[in-house]
């Protein structure tokens, strides 16, 4: 399972709700902004991250954790194809 925070909350209760979600293997933290970096908010966020790391939660498989060498280079080819089609129709 994966999750994300939808509301701008920096309190331990909100973080606790995330931690209580069983089987969570990934979490996207939205709302990273100046308020998050303020004193107590930052301390609670650090505690939350450490708890996520130490909580024995299921981790994503290696194939889901890393990027690939995949390169998509067909965009230029699409433009050329469109030009060829237009020429063929004229």
From TrEMBL:
Major enzyme class: hydrolase
Alphabetized GO MF terms: beta-amylase activity
Domain of life: Eukaryota
Keyword Hydrolase: yes
InterPro entries: GH, Glyco_hydro_14
E.C. no: 3.2.1.2
Protein name: Beta-amylase
Family: Belongs to the glycosyl hydrolase 14 family.
Catalysed reactions listed for this entry: Hydrolysis of (1->4)-alpha-D-glucosidic linkages in polysaccharides so as to remove successive maltose units from the non-reducing ends of the chains
Keywords of this entry: Carbohydrate metabolism, Glycosidase, Hydrolase, Polysaccharide degradation
GO biological process annotation, one example: polysaccharide catabolic process
TM segment ranges: none
